[in-house]
Design brief:
Rossmann fold, seven-stranded mixed sheet, 32% helix
Length: 214
């Protein structure tokens, strides 16, 4: 079955700068998410993919999102208000290695509820550790997003852990795997929180989408 991505084209309108960022609320009920009609941009990925580090780097704050050596620390829907104009949403990761099956089902339930019911959601960002081969759990999740016509982009993380030539090869191999089921591949970004690579591109993309909403 071929899938196509419902999303936005990359165009450069402006340069996004994060001038302010603040925590708003954590919960497990999408109905309790902020009801101020500002756009949501949701970040999600497998545990230990570097999501909290990426969020902190994007916002230039060391402790906006909590980081931990123990994978799966994020267990709630976390909303952050950025520039008083949009929400960065930190969602629980999937594939917790130290979480019970019961809790996994709970996380899955409210993550699915968020994507199905959150009308303010403009785009999701699926984080992928660039060092690893394509994982079925990631591929299945992106397939589900596409089936539900939820716009998303891929953010490859931890690119500093590989040589540039290997980064290129890993990305090519990843999309080669996806091309078996996808007629149009999603947008993607290559990032490193250590070297600050790719962060401006992600923020500019969000800024461009915000402009299209006006």
């Amino acid at each position: 079955m071929c899938l196509f991505l419902i999303g936005f084209k990359k165009r450069v309108f402006s340069i996004m700068q994060v001038l302010s960022s603040e925590f708003l609320i954590s919960n497990t009920d999408v109905a309790k998410c902020p009801n101020n009609f500002l756009p949501d941009y949701a970040f999600i990925g497998r545990s230990n993919v570097g999501k909290s580090s990426l969020i902190n780097a994007l916002c230039n704050k060391k402790s906006l999102a909590k980081t931990s050596s123990r994978p799966g620390k994020t267990q709630l829907i976390n909303h952050f208000l950025i520039n008083k104009s949009w929400h960065l949403v930190d969602l629980p990761g999937y594939g917790y290695t130290r979480t019970s099956k019961t809790k996994k089902k709970v996380f899955q339930k409210f993550i699915i509820s968020y994507f199905k019911k959150r009308n303010q959601l403009v785009s999701a960002f699926v984080l992928i550790d660039i060092r690893h081969k394509p994982q079925l759990i990631d591929l299945d999740f992106m397939y589900w997003l596409a089936e539900k016509k939820i716009p998303f982009s891929i953010i490859f993380t931890k690119s500093d852990k590989l040589k540039p030539v290997n980064v290129k090869t890993h990305i090519e191999n990843y999309f080669k795997t996806m091309s078996d089921q996808w007629s149009l591949l999603p947008n993607h970004f290559v990032t490193s929180t250590l070297k600050k690579n790719g962060l401006e591109e992600v923020l500019d993309y969000i800024g461009n989408l915000n402009i299209t909403l006006k």
